[in-house]
Design a protein that fits this description.
It contains seven helices and no strands. It is mainly α.
Length: 195
Amino acid sequence: MLNRLLLGLPAIIGIVVGVVLVLALIIWAISCYNKFVSLRTHCDDAYSGIDVFLKKRYDLIPNLVETVKGYAKHESETLQRVIEARAGIAKASTVDEMVMADNALSQAIRGLNLVVERYPDLKANASFMSLQSQLRATETELSQSRLYYNARVRELNKSVQSFPGLIIAKLFKVKTRQMFTVDSPEERQNVKVQF
């Protein structure tokens, strides 16, 4: 009887080792999946931060345009570009669209800055100065939000593309995300909000 038990011991050990390995693999897969969920949540949270500051800038622009209109009635083309670029932000539904709309609005604001330079009285207007200060602060906060978002996306993308996490990423269809970037050299420059 003892001989039979001893002969069956390797099979029992093999089964136990197999069960332990399968459990370890399942625990690892669950851990990887939960990490991806956490990383995606961080990316979504960071993107919502960008959205908040884009909305804040979006809300400031009509007041800024109205203030400039009083001084620069014949600069309607520049003001129209700002208004159209602002509308593009509202229509954007994907990260790519948001990046393009944000870049267009930044360029339009640069054009508005050139118009304002031609009107010294406007630069002395208290209402305009307050709006300009709020816009400058919003641009700074927006820039910081973009950096935070890109850091979160970088972390997610690295995890999705690295072995062995890429196995779980493919299994659960976790995809990389696009960073918030600028497209042209002019857009890479800071928006000057000094009027």
